[in-house]
Amino acid sequence: MGDARSTAADGSGQERQRFVVGLLAAPGLAQELSGKIAGTLRTRLRRRFPDIEWHVVTRTEMLAGAGAGMGVDLVRLTRERMLDEGWQVALCLTDLPLHVGRRPVTAHVSVTLGVGVISVPALGAVDLRDRAAEVALRMMDRLFTRRSEDGRQSARPTRMRARVRARLRARMQELEELSSPLGRPYTPDKETVRFVTAAGQGNLRLLVGMVRANRPWRLVSGLSHALVGALGAGAFALASPGLWQIADGMGLGRVLTLAFGSMAAISGTLIVAHGLWERSPSPEARDRVVLMNLATSFTVILGVLTLYAALLIIVGVCGTALIPSSVLRNQLHHPVDLGDYLRVAWTVSSLATIGGALGAALESDSAVREAAYGYRPSERSDANRRGTDA
After folding, report:
1. Transmembrane stretches, by residue range (predicted)?
2. Choice between 45 and 385, residue whose per-residue pLDDT is larger
3. pLDDT reading at 126 higher than 80
4. For the chain, N or C: smaller number of CB within 10 Å?
């Protein structure tokens, strides 16, 4: 990769500095996001500072993921990777929440160390690519301004440094005046910058972002025992004439109670039986633990809702196709219509979901955590060195 401070000549023979930006990303959504913004970041940096030869490198970092735990020092981790790789600055995209007190932090920049950390959940659940690119550019403004002002970090002529510094200052003033969902800059000291948001709105967006990062619609597809249990119970119940009669005699209140009860059963099994509910004796960690538990609960609930909706569609289609109306009419002793098939499918789906709860109890803790958080410990050694150069 070479030295990030090396120089090259452009077509006019003018000296150009080579500047390498490293993007570390947790596996999953953050990793996908880093790949999407790498080209955008490189293009905008080259357009803004044409005198510099920009390169953006992406790497996957397992320790930056939620599954690695809340105790990882991401700034130090990013700094170590930057030094190992020979980058000039490095940004880390994590799916962990960051806070200053009770205020969510979108990004943390250490000018002295030349690194920054972006909390992907704090960006919310929509427009992630644009928001991530914006905050990465703002962080680069902070990092590169300081580096450009330090003569020991650059062998460039004084005039070139002055031009770059003037452009950066103008851009920083423009960005400071923008009303952005990324929050306002907070500077605890001249070497550190954090972008913080309002406590109420920011924590709500952070919670939504954490659930989005977990991708709950993929939860059940990663739980083979729960899926097999649900489908097996559904197939057995659908072929039972006695259950058709039970469904026919149930009112709307009973049907809804059974549906919500079955979803609560599988959700509770996944959370309690596999230790997804966090606890901490430390008062300082209480807010973070509550936020993580809420994100876990919403992730599991939305995943179970996805399972239930899929079961309802599958059972409804199969029941309508396989059970002749004459057979169902003979069993129910009255004319049947689409509503009767829907009531049967609804009841069968609820019982199938209870079967999924039994299957969920048989899942291993690692399988459940992988499905809920996208954390794959077996990939740590491979992904640690995997990446691309933009």
Report:
1. 219-244, 256-277, 298-323, 343-362
2. 45
3. no
4. N
